[in-house]
Amino acid sequence: MSTADPLANKNLQSNLQWSLLLLRVGVFIVMFIWTLDxxxxxxxxxxxxxxxxxxxxxxxxxxYGLGALQLVLVIAFLxxxxxxxxxxxxxxxxAGSTLSAYAQYIDAFNNLLFxxxxxxxxxxxxxxxxxxxxxxxxxxx
Length: 141
Known about the structure:
Shape: globular
Low-confidence stretches: none
Number of domains: 1
Radius of gyration: 18 Å
Order of helices and strands: HHHHHH
């Protein structure tokens, strides 16, 4: 089938929408668990901010507040609300997280799980770039 074939274009569009939905749900799952961690184990968030972001003085209340803001963001992301903003912030948050772990990449074989951040970063970038085509089960435009 050539790309000029209307059926092929319809299948491509459908496959693209389903693929973007799967990427969005997959990224949401990771981000949602990271969000829940701020409520379930704020001490873990405090350690992460101190170790990876070099931010001291972070406390439980700040973890809960950040968790609440992040929860609003990841829900907006899941439902495709304000895509330019929500997809962009998710991408930037994950990029910051990925890049802040640079020391783990130097000692690669003792930190293999950190490398999973790169395909997820690519998924976040893809979702941002293709946000207008990501329409399956979204509430935004």
